[in-house]
Amino acid sequence: MKTQELLQVLETHKDKALLFEYAPNQLVGANYHITEVKHIAVDSVDCGARTDSWKETIVQLWESPSEKDKTEFMSTYKALGILKKVGSIKPFDMTSEVKFEYGNSLFHTAQLFVNDYEIKNNQLLFKLAVEKTDCKAKEACGVPETVEKTEEVACCAPGGGCC
Predict the structure, then answer these.
(1) What band does 68 get if pLDDT is binned at 50, 70 and 90?
(2) How far apart are CA 156 and CA 4, in angstroms?
């Protein structure tokens, strides 16, 4: 999801509670706050020596321990107000990819992509997901597009070849 689409979805549904699903059936607690918005410019070189660059908008979510019993989620209206204020201080690149940075004691901190969103009851639910790492230069590196499953042999098993 691009930053422009995020802001449009929030604007369209500003009368709803805003929820985030960070893993299947696992919600960021109602005690979350938006603690930081990062405007990131990535300038990279992949393993095939190709360069690339892009921008990202990263919205950090944090659960306040002092509000752990809170049951009412932040309103979309409030979140939109926070993001508009950020945009007035440091303008967004509306074409940049949006990620939400989140972690808790049961889930490693990660930058999560927006896979989808849904409107249910009086809630706007963003479904987040971790993107797996991948080789961007498969052809240059000689990596086949589809990796066939190989039979694993224990290293120190007879005939394993390493002991």
Answers:
(1) very high
(2) 54
